[in-house]
Amino acid sequence: MHLAKLINKPESKDTMTEAVMVQRVNNKITPRIDINVGHACNIRCEFCYYIKTYNNKLSEDLTTEEIKRLLVQARKRGKFMVDFTGGEPTMRPDLPELVRFAGDIGFSRICTITNGLMMSRKEYLQKLKDAGLNDILFSVHGHNEDVHDNTTKVKGSFKLVMQAIKNAQELGMYYRMNGVINNRNYKDTEKLFELFASLKPYVANFILYNPVAEITDEENLKKKGVTYTEAAPYIMNAIKEYKGQFRKINIRFMPYCTLPGYEQHISTMRQIQYDSDEWDYQFHVRMKRGVPIQLGATMAGMVIGMRNPYFRQADIHTKLREAINEVRIIQDRVKSPKCKACRFEPICDGFPRTYVKARGDSEINPVPGEKIYDPAHFLKINNTDGTYFNDTR
Hints:
This protein is of the alpha/beta class.
């Protein structure tokens, strides 16, 4: 089907029940924010969202004082979890200072997302722990040295991240793990799950290669991506085998209809703002793009969202926090008219526009049944909704 025909049209005049409305009003917004400290990085992952920025040296990292101001702003708005992202945050000499500052002003969960190279030095990780780092999100993209190193383009990076995880274990630190599923490793998904299970992270995130940011062209998608149909059997087998070994398994950037029977593990843009392991996207836009862009996107989202009955009937607070996601989704995602018959349509993001343009919509397979309107529906089923960490965990 031609991309131009795959547009989001006004929904039917179906209404939600009062119970559904109460569910949405009671959803807790995540207390976690992210701060991108800059794009400097010591590896070159072939699927990196910002590879053009790295290669062309276009980025200027935030200063220490700029980051501290953002942290203060976040605390004033009630946030108490922070993920330092990049790039690679551990390349900054001031990271221990930033971690300590975050703790001093009241952040109780302080995390950095990392490739682990710097943390392979135990004394460095000890320094971060002493400063107050109490959460790490390690990125591991292959079950062995060959796959991981060929993905990061740095020989020895697999051994280094394994050493970093061992260091975190020996220091008694809480950690999670990320892995990107792409055309290089998708057939080894079960082996990647097996590796993750052996390392015992609290949460395991598996992210399907996603055409966003600087990799939205069809050429990148075809060279590095994998179709949902190709990846799904491997992912489902892996979940079936290892789901009991993780507190939570997240599968990012797959539409619900592509993972039948395993929908509860899918994490969507509509859902993540209610997941305490994820970021508040409203605040993300405010810090990264500025208040005028945030307000403009929110106003546009209010208009866009009114086409849907479940948005129209929401209270004003729910509308405000979900409006910006409406803009984000309509920019990056698209739905087919046949999606209207799917029970997950109200909470599904749809398919990436680049994906549909390159591969069509033949993989869209509407799931019949009573529609689900609450974006936090599966978080509640998984018993992770609102599970906020405390200072002693």
